Amino acid sequence: MSFAIPSAAPALRLARFSAEIRAAVERVLASGRLILGPEVESFEQNLAAYLGLPHCVGVASGTDALALALRALGIGTGDEVATVAMTAPATATAILSTGATPRFVDIDPRSRGMDPVALESAITHETAAIVPVHLHGSPAPIVEIMAIAERHGLAVVEDCAQACGAHINGRKLGSFGQAAAISFYPTKNLGAMGDGGAVVTHDAAIAERIRRFRFYGMNAAEEAVSWGTNSRLDEIQAAILSVLLPHLDAHNEERRQVARAYRVGLAELESGLPPDLPGAIYHHFAIAAPNRERLAQRLAEKGIGTRRHYSPGLHRHGAFADRSANLPETDLLAARTLSLPIQPEVVLGCSDRVIEAVRSCLS
Ligand SMILES: Cc1ncc(COP(=O)(O)O)c(C=O)c1O
Fold first, then answer.
1. Which atom of ligand 1 approaches the CA of 63 most closely?
2. In a 3-state reduction of DSSP, which class is residue 181?
3. Which among 185, 190, 282 is the best mutation to test ligand 1's pocket, defined by most ligand atoms within 8 Å of the CB?
């Protein structure tokens, strides 16, 4: 189904920078260096500097970034990793791929992120790590989560797939945990023209392990010395991301502008509006509406695309089913969540149409 106002349109964002992107792709083609070359190195350095971290390692996707970060921290078979069920399936897929088991913790409805109180009571002897998710580009209560992790001696890998550029009082998300995973999936705020991801970290040893893991487990002398896989960011994606990174803050600010308009226009939703945190970058603008299915249908009839990020919670997906999980806040939000178009190129000049349509459906 095609929409006048689609839920996202990455091609429109890329079109804004078409000349620069074409020049960057031409440069890579002319160089003949297509994998792990100067474009990846320079993008890694620039992204690390942007986030205020010393190390960044480009990999093939956000899912791989999470899985490789967990492996670099020694997480594997027999371990449990505490995370949330209100997230993309990729968060739990990555945990499972290491041999560990995801243990779902409920969210705090105020932040829609992991509830620190629920986290503390979910920790067992098997818990080895925590993966908080900065859902929709909005900070999870990471300061409280880090304090709990330190008390229990647990590693933290922040899932920043949706949160590149978001911050708490100026400190970028991704700089709180031992490592963080970022996704460059095309719809992301910093999205490539294909798949890509990165791990960022303060820890040189973690970065060094991930560089090895992403390239068959080989050291600098090309001897395979450990477990490894093939998970490389390619030169073309890195060159495109280097074009887009300097524009990320302006892009995120445009998303905040749309979010402000939605907050004013849809004030009647009250607690159904997403958390209003100054450092959020609005990867999604997810409202909570009791009549979600009818609202989505009516908006579709008016040419407005919406998505359900995320419904149902992961504890109800076959691959991760956790019958013992009692997650009332996750279930409540999952039944109501509906993401309105927020990408600036789609909706910056026409957020009024979305507001009017939602208001007329609600009344
Ligand atoms: C919260 C979250 N975690 C992880 C991922 C995985 O990223 P990728 O699709 O790049 O593997 C995504 C991507 O949608 C995501 O939204």
1. 11
2. strand
3. 185
Establish whether residue 83 lines the binding site of ligand 1, counting it when its CB lies within 6 angstroms of any ligand atom: no
Q: Among 89, 97, 98, which Cα is nearest to 161's?
A: 89
Closest residue to atom 7 of ligand 1, CA basis:
62
Query: Ligand 1 pocket, 282 CB below 6 A?
Result: no
| Cα atoms in the 13 Å half-sphere on the side-chain side of 99 | 7
Listed by start position, the domains of the chain span 11-246, 247-362
Architecture, CATH, for domain 11-246: 3-Layer(aba) Sandwich (3.40)
Mutate to test the pocket of ligand 1, among 183, 188, 214 (most ligand atoms within 8 A of CB): 183
pTM, two decimals, is: 0.98
Distance CA 50, CA 253 (A): 16
Using CA atoms, how far apart are residues 256 and 254, in angstroms rounded to an integer? 5
pLDDT in tens, the chain (363 residues): 789 999 999 999 999 999 999 999 999 999 999 999 999 999 999 999 999 999 999 999 999 999 999 999 999 999 999 999 999 999 999 999 999 999 999 999 999 999 999 999 999 999 999 999 999 999 999 999 999 999 999 999 999 999 999 999 999 999 999 999 999 999 999 999 999 999 999 999 999 999 999 999 999 999 999 999 999 999 999 999 999 999 999 999 999 999 999 999 999 999 999 999 999 999 999 999 999 999 999 999 999 999 999 999 999 999 997 777 899 999 999 999 999 999 999 999 999 999 999 999 988
Looking at domain 247-362, what is its CATH homologous superfamily? Answer: Aspartate Aminotransferase, domain 1 (3.90.1150.10)
